[in-house]
Fold:
Amino acid sequence: MSSPAPVTVAGFAHVRLTVTDLARSRAFYDALFGWEVAYELPDDADDATTQALGFLYGGIIYSLPGGLFGLRPVAPGTDAFSEDRVGLDHLSLSVATAAELQEAVATLDALGVHHEPVKDLGDASILEFRDPDGIALELTAPNA
Structure:
């Protein structure tokens, strides 16, 4: 019996993180990245709009080059992220140059966000930090 053909994937469509406090998380991601909002429920939404946007779970979805990034505020306030549990280890986003990592360091410092030093991995460099829920994030740039 032959194996089925592997599924060909063209890229990521979206990533959505579950957060404990949407306002806090949104303020963090807005200040750091300034992404365009793709979907959110308007404050004055009617029942039809609320139903149509039910997939947001009260959250927000941003538009990024190459896909969508969402925040889903359904975790209890006492919950905490751990990369040592089944699920997400970390999320790495790419920037175009190593110089942009240095700009990100300055932005994180200005926002008071703790981060690791930029690490040179040979072909690439990374900058590691965490969001308000402790979700491990990383910016990656080629060293060329």
Q: What stands out?
A: The chain has three helices and eight strands.
